[in-house]
């Protein structure tokens, strides 16, 4: 049997949008098959249909050659289909093993024996090189490890058709390399994989074939080895994508944001997350903050935006100290923030897109006047953001935000914050989860802000992004400033080395 899964002419409509418009995808046994498409193209919907979370309006699914009807995820499991979602579904105060057996029916009359379950978890972990400790608590392990627990959960249920939905979006570069090895091991052991990712580099590194969809429609399936990244990008977006941004030379002006000797506590008792950290960002400058995840970047950003109190030091905006101002007062003074976690901090998912676009400024004129909301002004303002940033939503600004695809939610936040025209924009992972076309657009808008004399703090785990957008790069390690270098006179190797704590000159 050549194909383990055949999804034929799958159609799924939501109010105002055809998410899947007769899509066909065929997965061969033993291959890694990438599924590529713009934000909102319909990838998650298609995979949710395969996993039994949604029902197709029409079309056919065959598994191992047989017609099947996948009415819910239990049926998918019985057919050997497993899925690792973008947002993990683990219970934090349970152990790895407890999470893995959670929801499994005990065999008639027998309770599940945790000890033998832990033993089997260990065996599977060793067989696939997952390195998971069965008795560790989820709250104590890294995000990369949590993902491996999700992988183990599928393997424990004997899944051999594995769906990964943007698995690398939450991982550090090292964890990405490890995941690539794990996926290759899985294939060696006879599994077949569907991989959703926006990163063409990853598709090139692991996938055998790639199916491309655009606006719900099937565009084609290509052999990855003989197709270039540019060709795949063009199939996906429908136009040529430039992988570089144009950044004109510019002399930076006066310092807008100044951080002096800042120290911030970590959420772990007795530990400082940021230690005596100082830098400034000038008018017309992008300062990149590079570091391995968890080295104090989040706390630094929280301290500047007012989400977390500082322990000592000073933060000044346009010459005025803001260290003890509230979040809203800081926004009103000219700080905007694209947060790390769009679902927790960025958006209220049950509000409409329109409401979310004015969430920080609805009490200003013209959006409200003497306590009355001006719905027309709010809609017009929101519609402009949605149009400029190409936020695709079935019912435009009236769509409930939860119904937007992940990437479109991200574009909405980025648009909202840039549109505030802030003096300082704190942009944390601004392009996480975005397709290459949208990344290109957001990069252009960030550079435009800089060219207009605004200051930007760019926090990103993508070194390529830091190096191509920043004017200067500050490197953080273990909460300390390792150094600030000019982007023009450095490279990935040097910044990578500094991220491990080695100062410039230390190696001479
Ligand atoms: N439950 C829902 N209700 C209404 N519309 C929905 C729902 N789920 C998805 N959609 C719409 O269907 C379209 C496809 O969304 P989907 O999440 O499948 O895209 P995607 O390709 O996975 O995007 P991304 O790369 O941004 O994650 C989008 O326009 C989205 O707004």
TrEMBL record:
Segments forming domain ABC transporter: 5-240, 257-503
One Pfam family, short name: ABC_tran
Membrane topology (UniProt): Peripheral membrane protein
Molecular-function GO terms, alphabetical: ATP binding; ATP hydrolysis activity
GO cellular component, one term: plasma membrane
Gene3D superfamilies named in the record: P-loop containing nucleotide triphosphate hydrolases
Keyword terms: ATP-binding, Cell membrane, Membrane, Nucleotide-binding, Repeat, Translocase, Transport
Alphabetized InterPro entries for the sequence: AAA+_ATPase, ABC_carbohydrate_import_ATPase, ABC_transporter-like_ATP-bd, ABC_transporter-like_CS, P-loop_NTPase
Transmembrane segments: none
Compartment list: Cell membrane
PANTHER family reported in the protein's UniProt record: CARBOHYDRATE TRANSPORT ATP-BINDING PROTEIN MG119-RELATED, GUANOSINE IMPORT ATP-BINDING PROTEIN NUPO
Name of this chain's protein: ABC transporter ATP-binding protein
The organism of origin for this protein: Alkaliphilus pronyensis
